[in-house]
Design a protein that fits this description.
The chain contains 3 helices and 23 strands. The chain has 339 residues and is of the alpha+beta class. The protein folds into 4 domains: 87 residues, Beta Barrel (conserved putative lor/sdh protein from methanococcus maripaludis s2 fold); 81 residues, Beta Barrel (Elongation Factor Tu (Ef-tu), domain 3); 61 residues, Beta Barrel (OB fold (Dihydrolipoamide Acetyltransferase, E2P)), CATH 2.40.50; 58 residues, Helix hairpin bin (Helix Hairpins, Orthogonal Bundle). The strands form 4 sheets. Strands 1, 2, 17, 18, 19, 20, 21, 22 and 23 form a 9-stranded mixed beta sheet that branches. A hairpin with a 5-residue loop joins strand 19 and strand 20. The longest helix has 29 residues.
Length: 339
């Protein structure tokens, strides 16, 4: 009887042990879904970020070309196309000048006609005819100058743009060179960035750069590298082309430029890096699909890839998506390129 009871107890214990093990297995979390890539050596060009600014190709302070009282002036925010009148100077004096020069030219033409008739009849010398002809020519030139001055009472936009600042006011007296308004072309724009002169050797064949504003970024073509540096700041300028868009003149951007020669290094996509306040690390995946956390340092960076320095062997799989949720030693399931 005691032997039978002992057998029942052992059987019950065995059943319970199998049940607990099964329950434990059923309670395990499923493998974490991640995307991995293979760490490989890549040729990277070290990059540095420099500040840049969206600028207008046409940003001018429009000045008066003649003297007079300002009768009218555009308002800030007014838009003009090339040739539109943006300010007017009192034209009464210049209009009177034109009328006087027209009358003088008529008199000179009449005098020339009379001299020509006298010369043809040999009642006047050829020298008198030459003098009358010169007087007529001078009167024509003087009239042309007077008409030109009259036209300059209308201050016109030299290019299409927006008035962003009034630097004179109606009623003020303008002289030659008095600044009237600041006109900015908001369509023909580009980026100006200043870079260290020491980077000049790596800019010679620079065709495009990565430009970022906030969280957004794109590659843009380099229009010009200005091969002249400032002797104080030791900086030089590059100009980057921009197509029309929602760019506002004055917008601050960041520009990635090469800062050294190309290097062959172990590199991973930026998405593989997990940044913390006091550490940078990534997760690798071994043959058993177990995640391993490795602290690293970063080196050269170019585009979407960055050099990794640390105990990371070449050819190992590194997590590029899903790493933020991983723990050391956790089981993972690589799903290719899509989670």
């Amino acid at each position: 009887m005691k032997t039978l009871a002992l057998k029942w107890i052992l059987a019950l214990a065995l059943v319970l042990s199998f049940g607990l093990e099964a329950a434990a297995q059923q309670g395990e979390p499923p493998p974490a879904r991640v995307v991995t890539v293979e760490i490989q050596k890549r040729l990277l060009v070290p990059q540095m970020q420099v500040p840049g600014t969206v600028v207008s190709k046409n940003d001018s302070r429009i000045s008066a070309e003649i003297t007079g009282r300002i009768m009218a002036i555009a308002e800030v925010g007014d838009t003009f196309i090339a040739g539109d009148v943006i300010a007017r100077i009192d034209d009464r004096f210049y209009l009177a000048q034109v009328k006087r020069m027209e009358a003088d030219l008529r008199q000179k033409n009449q005098n020339l006609s009379r001299i020509e008739e006298l010369t043809s009849s040999q009642f006047s010398s050829v020298s008198n005819l030459e003098l009358a002809t010169a007087d007529r020519d001078i009167a024509e030139a003087t009239l042309d100058q007077a008409k030109y001055d009259l036209e300059r009472t209308k201050i016109r936009a030299p290019f299409s743009g927006v008035v962003v600042e009034r630097l004179s006011q109606a009623g003020e007296y303008a002289t030659v060179g008095t600044v009237i308004v600041r006109l900015v072309d908001t369509h023909n724009i580009e980026i100006s960035a200043r870079v260290p002169i020491s980077s000049a050797p790596y800019l010679e064949d620079l065709a495009e750069v990565f430009v970022s504003e906030g969280l957004d970024g794109l590659k843009l073509p380099v229009r010009a590298v200005v091969p002249v540096g400032d002797e104080r700041s030791r900086m030089m300028e590059i100009r980057i082309s921009l197509s029309e868009g929602n760019w506002v003149v004055g917008t601050a951007v960041k520009v990635d430029i090469p800062s050294g020669p190309a290097l062959e290094v172990l590199a991973v996509p930026r998405d593989a890096l997990i940044l913390r306040s006091n550490n940078i690390y990534l997760f690798t995946v071994d043959a058993d699909n177990i995640a391993k956390r490795i602290s690293i340092r970063i080196g050269a960076a170019s585009g979407d890839y960055v050099e990794v320095i640390g105990d990371v062997p070449e050819g190992v799989q590194v997590v590029v998506r899903g790493g933020e949720r991983l723990r050391e030693g956790q089981k993972v399931a690589a799903l290719g390129d899509n989670l």
